[in-house]
Amino acid sequence: MNTTTPLLNTILDGIRKDYTKGNLNEDTVNEDPFQQFEFWLKEAIDGGNHHANAMTLSTVDSALQPDSRVVLLKDISEGGFTFFTNYTSKKAHDMVSHPKASLLFFWSEMERQIRIQGVIKRLSEKASDEYFETRPYESKVGALASKQSQKIASRAILEELYAEKLKEVENKSIVRPANWGGYVLIPSKIEFWQGRPSRLHDRICFTLQQNKIWQIERLMP
Ligand SMILES: Cc1cc2nc3c(=O)[nH]c(=O)nc-3n(C[C@H](O)[C@H](O)[C@H](O)COP(=O)(O)O)c2cc1C
What we know:
Layout: H1 6-14, H2 33-46, E1 54-60, E2 66-72, E3 75-77, E4 80-86, H3 90-97, E5 100-107, E6 112-122, H4 125-134, H5 137-145, H6 155-169, E7 180-194, E8 202-208, E9 214-218
Antiparallel strand pairs: 1-2, 1-5, 3-4, 4-7, 5-6, 6-7, 7-8, 8-9
Helix pairs in contact: 5-6
This protein binds flavin mononucleotide (FMN).
């Protein structure tokens, strides 16, 4: 079925809204986009968003097919935004084919969006080891058990794999498996969007110039 149903029409019409929560302008935006990001992240968390560090990571595969999924921002370090995943996952293969990606945050409570573009690098082994060490024991076992993005015949088999790994490690300390670790997206462009009334939204875009200075420009909504 590909025609719009009356129910869908009613639902979508019902969520039309105006944006009134704030504004963003050239005079008050921080000239360092990382600091501006941290400021907005804090406001999103203080504003009650329990998934404020959830970000949509978009990658492109070898056939130039874009793909997106949510991952968690874990730090800003090594020049960019860091996250952790499996190095043999679909996203990891995509990032080998095309080491460029984008990140998207949408914080509905604050009516804010942040778009980030840049290049992808593996995080240092040291940083990945240190983060892995902080993970709960069950998550560590989960990282050992799951060959992320591969097909599996049933949930029961997944749980068996987990139980096997749990038995194998038997409460011993678990070191980070070689196929699991971090990435850093080093940004070249960061756009901050604040919803405004009458669809006249504020868009302030930071572009990294060759001299390493961030150029700040306003975009039409
Ligand atoms: C709120 C949320 C947080 C997630 N965090 C991560 C994460 O930090 N790392 C990760 O590998 N997958 C995370 N996932 C799962 C991914 O969205 C995705 O299903 C998985 O990484 C496989 O993606 P891929 O097949 O494109 O590699 C998260 C999903 C959600 C909904």
